[in-house]
Amino acid sequence: MDLRGVDFDAFDVVVVAVPDGAGDPADIVDIVRPPGRAGPVELILLSTRHDVEAAVAALHRGASDFLVKPLSASRLRLALGRALERRRLLRENARLQRDLVLFATAQRLLEHLDPAELATAGVDALCSAGGAAGAALWGKDVRASRGLSGDEATTVYERLAPTGFVEHHTGDAVGLPRFEVVLLLDLGAELSAAVAFHESPGTAQQEGLFFLARQLSTAFQNAARYRDAADLALRDALTGLWNASAFATALQRLLEHGPSPFCLLFLDLDHFKQVNDQFGHLVGSRAIVEAARAVEGQVREGDVVGRYGGDELVVLLPAADGNAGFTVANRIRKAVEAVRVGGADGLRLTVSVGVACSPEDGVDSQSVFEAADRGLYQAKGASRNTVCRATKALPLSKPGQ
């Protein structure tokens, strides 16, 4: 019989009776267990040769056992039992190694707190540890792919949307014809993944893939919680605006981006102590919240609004000159005038605003802050409910204008 035509991967144990005069039994080992192939079959050789060197050579090449004929049935059963046990242990060890790789990969995913970095690490994990030929991940704010062309990735992002945790598709059915199977995964929180295979994945491979998908979903949830916690640490607890530290950081980053005009508005509610004295601190807090909302309603997306402390608010207007700064400041002043605070009949709020612009009033954060503070001081000393810019000919904005 020609052993070269046999598919030995279909067997756990192969027993070969070496014909007399067949030459070196070790040559049979190379046919049944080719060097370098993963998961080779267990091989038992039966021979009539009482040749220690031939037996050692066969065992050295990878044979599981070398038995000399004639032999008893119990001896053969013992050899078969040992071979099957080795096979079981090897499979168990391979499964353990695979699980260790999956757990280590999952741990690395859980260490990522940046969604963009996590998306890239996620598709890498689905391909390497998950055994996929290509993968893509997408959501509201992230997109990442590996092993897919630009057109294929676009097809995934724009056309594919799983309706359950996992959907099995042929590649042709979802516009990825070069792949045999594509699995769509719903990771929750508006996140989805597509995992493509050239051949249908086996049960163990799918189990590993689903494990990674669940860990990836958890990692994104952790990243979102971290982002929310970090965001809360930079927010004012009362108004939800950026706090003074976060505002200062935003200003510093703007300055670090290079010379570019911007305006800083420093706002202070007028006679706020009287509001607390007359209506109580609860209404005072509510007044600050309503004023903050009025300010937010008058700025652009990309402008930064913060609570500097007490009843003081600050606004950063990137890419704005002095005229734009005065325009926004007056819109804010009028919006605050229109605020009506619930539970405080007769309460009317007004605000004074100091305006500073860079580079005219300074090119560093301290200089610009000090200029805006001087403008605010002058507005307070004028008639309140007005907008001023210090060190300039001051076109004061009067109430009602």
Low-confidence stretches: 393-401
Look at the structure and give the CATH class of the largest domain. Answer: Alpha Beta
Radius of gyration: 37 Å
Largest β-sheet summary: 5 strands, antiparallel
Task: For the largest sheet, list the strands in their spatial order.
Answer: 5-4-8-7-6
Q: Please, how many helices?
A: 11
According to DSSP, the number of beta strands is 13
SSE succession: EHEHEHHEEHEEEHHEHHEEHEHE
Q: What share of residues is helical?
A: 40-55%
Mean pLDDT: 87
The CATH topology of the largest domain turns out to be Alpha-Beta Plaits
Described by the principal axes of the CA atoms, the overall outline is rod-shaped
Return the structural class: alpha+beta
CATH superfamily placement of the largest domain: Reverse transcriptase/Diguanylate cyclase domain
Please indicate the percent range of residues in DSSP E strands (runs of 2 or more). 15-25%
Termini Cα gap: 105 Å
- CATH architectural name of the largest domain: 2-Layer Sandwich
Number of separate structural domains: 3
